Amino acid sequence: MTVMETRSAPAGPNGEDRYTISEVAARTGLSAYTLRWYERIGLMPHIDRSHTGQRRYSGRDLDWLAFVGKLRLTGMPVADMVRYAELVREGEHTFPERQELLESTRRDVRARIAELQDTLAVLDYKIDTYAGARRASERP
């Protein structure tokens, strides 16, 4: 999900988007269980509730979930994601710590990319070897 995809539904009565947990699950591909778990462990900010107690997610919540999805793709441990969320809630004075956490994750991602590029080179070599052997065996 991209940030732009989070804004495609009509705004609610006070001009703000509001989504049920099932709508958010459908938009993000996350299960309702996962969304509740994210809230329980502190990965999600406080989610507003309707007068009947039903969760009501905002467009901003969807933006946050899109970012969390990107952090998950980096391989960042859940504990680090929760720490990052705590730092966000603490305010701007935590910018240096947030930056370091993201820079550390970026270093890890770059190392994994290099590893994958090496692995890809090995695969390419093997594929070329088999293709060459097939061509040689097909010659009269």
**Residues in helices, as a percent range:** 55-70%
The helix/strand series, from N terminus to C terminus, equals: HHEEHHH
Unreliable sequence segments: 1-10
**Span from first to last CA?**
54 Å
Radius of gyration: 22 Å
Which of globular, elongated, flat, extended, rod-shaped describes the shape?
elongated
Q: Give me the side-by-side strand order of the main sheet.
A: 1-2
Query: pLDDT average, as an integer?
Result: 90
Description:
Helix 4 packs antiparallel against helix 5. With 140 residues, this protein is an all-alpha fold. The protein is elongated and about 80 Å long. A hairpin with a 5-residue loop joins strand 1 (48-49) and strand 2 (55-56). It has five helices and two strands; from the N terminus they run H-H-E-E-H-H-H. It has a two-stranded antiparallel sheet. The longest helix has 44 residues, at 95-138.
Brief summary:
This protein has 140 residues and is mainly alpha-helical.
Using brief descriptors, characterize the structure shown:
140 residues, mainly alpha, two-stranded antiparallel ribbon, 2 strands, disordered N terminus
How are the SSEs placed, and which strands pair?
Elements: H1 21-28, H2 32-41, E1 48-49, E2 55-56, H3 59-74, H4 78-90, H5 95-138
Antiparallel strand pairs: 1-2
Helix pairs in contact: 4-5
